[in-house]
Design the sequence.
Protein backbone atom coordinates (compact mmCIF):
# COMPACT_ATOMS: atom_id res chain seq x y z
CA UNK A 1 0.00 0.00 0.00
CA UNK A 2 1.42 3.39 -0.96
CA UNK A 3 1.86 6.43 1.29
CA UNK A 4 2.10 10.15 0.72
CA UNK A 5 3.73 13.02 2.59
CA UNK A 6 1.64 15.61 4.37
CA UNK A 7 1.90 18.53 6.79
CA UNK A 8 -0.49 19.57 9.52
CA UNK A 9 -0.54 22.22 12.24
CA UNK A 10 -0.76 21.78 16.01
CA UNK A 11 -2.97 24.10 18.05
CA UNK A 12 0.02 26.23 19.05
CA UNK A 13 1.03 26.79 15.43
CA UNK A 14 3.82 24.22 15.15
CA UNK A 15 4.01 22.68 11.68
CA UNK A 16 4.45 18.91 11.64
CA UNK A 17 5.49 16.54 8.89
CA UNK A 18 4.03 13.09 8.45
CA UNK A 19 3.15 10.28 6.11
CA UNK A 20 -0.29 8.83 5.51
CA UNK A 21 -1.06 5.52 3.83
CA UNK A 22 -3.85 5.09 1.34
CA UNK A 23 -7.13 4.15 2.93
CA UNK A 24 -9.21 1.08 2.19
CA UNK A 25 -12.99 0.93 1.98
CA UNK A 26 -14.60 0.80 5.42
CA UNK A 27 -11.50 0.08 7.52
CA UNK A 28 -12.31 -1.33 10.97
CA UNK A 29 -10.03 1.19 12.64
CA UNK A 30 -7.41 3.79 11.73
CA UNK A 31 -4.05 4.16 13.46
CA UNK A 32 -1.84 7.07 14.48
CA UNK A 33 1.74 6.01 15.22
CA UNK A 34 3.87 7.89 17.79
CA UNK A 35 7.66 7.54 17.77
CA UNK A 36 10.36 7.25 20.50
CA UNK A 37 12.14 10.05 22.32
CA UNK A 38 13.19 12.95 20.07
CA UNK A 39 16.33 13.65 22.09
CA UNK A 40 17.63 10.11 21.69
CA UNK A 41 17.30 9.77 17.94
CA UNK A 42 13.62 8.86 17.81
CA UNK A 43 11.69 9.71 14.66
CA UNK A 44 8.83 8.39 12.58
CA UNK A 45 11.45 6.29 10.76
CA UNK A 46 12.57 4.43 13.91
CA UNK A 47 12.57 0.67 13.47
CA UNK A 48 9.37 -0.38 15.25
CA UNK A 49 7.36 2.53 13.83
CA UNK A 50 8.64 1.80 10.33
CA UNK A 51 7.74 -1.88 10.57
CA UNK A 52 4.24 -1.07 11.85
CA UNK A 53 3.78 1.55 9.13
CA UNK A 54 4.44 -1.18 6.57
CA UNK A 55 2.57 -4.07 8.17
CA UNK A 56 -0.58 -2.49 9.64
CA UNK A 57 -1.85 -1.05 6.33
CA UNK A 58 -1.24 -4.43 4.73
CA UNK A 59 -3.63 -5.82 7.34
CA UNK A 60 -6.29 -3.24 6.46
CA UNK A 61 -5.53 -0.47 8.95
CA UNK A 62 -4.77 2.97 7.44
CA UNK A 63 -1.87 4.62 9.27
CA UNK A 64 -0.52 8.09 9.91
CA UNK A 65 3.01 8.46 11.25
CA UNK A 66 4.56 11.83 12.00
CA UNK A 67 7.56 13.53 13.53
CA UNK A 68 7.12 15.27 16.84
CA UNK A 69 8.05 18.95 17.00
CA UNK A 70 11.72 19.63 16.46
CA UNK A 71 12.36 16.31 14.70
CA UNK A 72 13.60 16.30 11.08
CA UNK A 73 11.21 18.48 9.05
CA UNK A 74 8.79 19.33 11.87
CA UNK A 75 9.14 22.84 13.25
CA UNK A 76 9.37 23.81 16.93
CA UNK A 77 11.50 22.20 19.62
CA UNK A 78 11.30 19.41 22.18
CA UNK A 79 8.74 20.34 24.83
CA UNK A 80 9.08 17.83 27.69
CA UNK A 81 6.01 15.94 26.48
CA UNK A 82 3.69 18.95 26.79
CA UNK A 83 3.82 20.25 23.23
CA UNK A 84 4.14 16.68 21.99
CA UNK A 85 0.66 15.99 23.36
CA UNK A 86 -0.62 18.78 21.12
CA UNK A 87 1.16 17.08 18.24
CA UNK A 88 -0.72 13.84 18.92
CA UNK A 89 -4.07 15.66 19.00
CA UNK A 90 -3.22 17.36 15.69
CA UNK A 91 -2.41 13.97 14.17
CA UNK A 92 -5.73 12.61 15.43
CA UNK A 93 -7.54 15.55 13.84
CA UNK A 94 -5.79 14.89 10.54
CA UNK A 95 -6.69 11.20 10.59
CA UNK A 96 -10.29 11.93 11.60
CA UNK A 97 -10.65 14.21 8.59
CA UNK A 98 -9.14 11.55 6.34
CA UNK A 99 -11.44 8.72 7.46
CA UNK A 100 -14.49 10.40 8.98
CA UNK A 101 -16.51 8.17 11.25
CA UNK A 102 -13.80 5.52 11.55
CA UNK A 103 -12.56 4.71 15.09
CA UNK A 104 -8.95 5.72 15.72
CA UNK A 105 -6.32 4.01 17.86
CA UNK A 106 -3.08 5.50 19.14
CA UNK A 107 -0.09 3.18 18.84
CA UNK A 108 3.09 4.46 20.44
CA UNK A 109 6.53 3.07 21.18
CA UNK A 110 8.59 4.09 24.22
CA UNK A 111 8.32 7.89 24.70
CA UNK A 112 5.57 7.84 22.06
CA UNK A 113 3.67 5.28 24.13
CA UNK A 114 3.86 7.49 27.21
CA UNK A 115 2.66 10.56 25.32
CA UNK A 116 -0.16 8.55 23.72
CA UNK A 117 -1.36 7.29 27.09
CA UNK A 118 -1.54 10.88 28.27
CA UNK A 119 -4.06 11.80 25.57
CA UNK A 120 -7.72 10.91 26.16
CA UNK A 121 -9.27 12.51 23.08
CA UNK A 122 -12.97 11.66 22.55
CA UNK A 123 -12.23 10.49 19.00
CA UNK A 124 -10.07 7.66 20.29
CA UNK A 125 -11.23 4.06 20.43
CA UNK A 126 -8.21 2.81 22.39
CA UNK A 127 -4.45 2.55 22.79
CA UNK A 128 -1.62 0.14 22.05
CA UNK A 129 1.44 1.09 24.11
CA UNK A 130 4.70 -0.62 23.15
CA UNK A 131 7.41 -0.65 25.84
CA UNK A 132 6.05 2.39 27.70
CA UNK A 133 8.59 3.61 30.30
CA UNK A 134 5.68 5.27 32.16
CA UNK A 135 8.01 8.12 33.10
CA UNK A 136 7.39 10.91 30.64
CA UNK A 137 4.04 12.04 32.02
CA UNK A 138 3.10 12.88 35.59
CA UNK A 139 -0.33 11.34 35.00
CA UNK A 140 -1.76 9.08 32.31
CA UNK A 141 -5.25 10.03 31.23
CA UNK A 142 -5.79 6.56 29.79
CA UNK A 143 -5.42 4.91 33.19
CA UNK A 144 -8.96 5.57 34.40
CA UNK A 145 -10.49 5.59 30.93
CA UNK A 146 -12.91 2.78 30.09
CA UNK A 147 -11.63 2.41 26.52
CA UNK A 148 -9.36 -0.61 25.88
CA UNK A 149 -5.61 -0.50 26.27
CA UNK A 150 -3.09 -3.15 25.24
CA UNK A 151 0.49 -2.91 26.52
CA UNK A 152 3.24 -4.76 24.65
CA UNK A 153 6.33 -5.19 26.82
CA UNK A 154 9.85 -6.51 26.30
CA UNK A 155 11.03 -9.28 28.60
CA UNK A 156 14.48 -7.69 28.94
CA UNK A 157 13.55 -4.02 28.70
CA UNK A 158 16.50 -1.86 29.72
CA UNK A 159 14.37 1.06 30.87
CA UNK A 160 11.41 -0.46 32.73
CA UNK A 161 11.05 -4.09 33.69
CA UNK A 162 7.77 -5.81 32.76
CA UNK A 163 6.94 -6.69 36.38
CA UNK A 164 7.30 -3.03 37.32
CA UNK A 165 5.00 -1.98 34.48
CA UNK A 166 2.46 -4.66 35.45
CA UNK A 167 2.42 -3.39 39.02
CA UNK A 168 1.97 0.20 37.87
CA UNK A 169 -0.99 -0.58 35.59
CA UNK A 170 -2.61 -3.19 37.84
CA UNK A 171 -5.54 -0.90 38.64
CA UNK A 172 -5.89 0.65 35.16
CA UNK A 173 -9.27 0.08 33.55
CA UNK A 174 -9.67 -2.38 30.64
CA UNK A 175 -5.93 -2.98 30.26
CA UNK A 176 -4.26 -6.11 28.93
CA UNK A 177 -0.52 -6.80 28.98
CA UNK A 178 1.61 -9.03 26.75
CA UNK A 179 5.33 -9.67 27.24
CA UNK A 180 7.49 -10.61 24.26
CA UNK A 181 10.03 -13.26 25.30
CA UNK A 182 13.69 -12.50 24.66
CA UNK A 183 13.03 -8.93 23.55
CA UNK A 184 14.90 -5.80 24.55
CA UNK A 185 13.39 -2.31 24.55
CA UNK A 186 14.36 -2.01 20.87
CA UNK A 187 12.85 -5.38 19.82
CA UNK A 188 15.73 -6.27 17.52
CA UNK A 189 14.83 -9.61 15.94
CA UNK A 190 11.39 -9.48 17.58
CA UNK A 191 9.52 -6.91 15.49
CA UNK A 192 7.35 -9.69 14.05
CA UNK A 193 6.03 -10.32 17.54
CA UNK A 194 5.43 -6.60 18.04
CA UNK A 195 3.33 -6.60 14.87
CA UNK A 196 1.29 -9.63 15.93
CA UNK A 197 0.64 -8.23 19.42
CA UNK A 198 -0.27 -4.82 17.97
CA UNK A 199 -2.72 -6.47 15.60
CA UNK A 200 -4.23 -8.36 18.54
CA UNK A 201 -4.63 -5.12 20.44
CA UNK A 202 -6.20 -3.36 17.47
CA UNK A 203 -8.62 -6.23 16.93
CA UNK A 204 -9.76 -5.93 20.55
CA UNK A 205 -10.12 -2.14 20.24
CA UNK A 206 -12.08 -2.47 16.99
CA UNK A 207 -14.41 -5.17 18.30
CA UNK A 208 -17.99 -4.11 19.07
CA UNK A 209 -18.03 -2.67 22.55
CA UNK A 210 -14.22 -2.51 22.62
Sequence:
Amino acid sequence: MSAHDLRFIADDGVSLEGELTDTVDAPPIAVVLCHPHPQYGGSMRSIVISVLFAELPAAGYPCLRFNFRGVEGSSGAYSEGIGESLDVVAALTTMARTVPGVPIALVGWSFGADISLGVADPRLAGWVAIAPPLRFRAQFAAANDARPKHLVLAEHDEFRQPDDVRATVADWRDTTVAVIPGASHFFVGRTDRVVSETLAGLARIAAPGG
The first helix runs from residue 47 to 58. DSSP finds five helices and eight strands in the chain. Helices lie at 47-58, 82-98, 111-117, 162-168, 191-206. The longest strand covers residues 3-9.
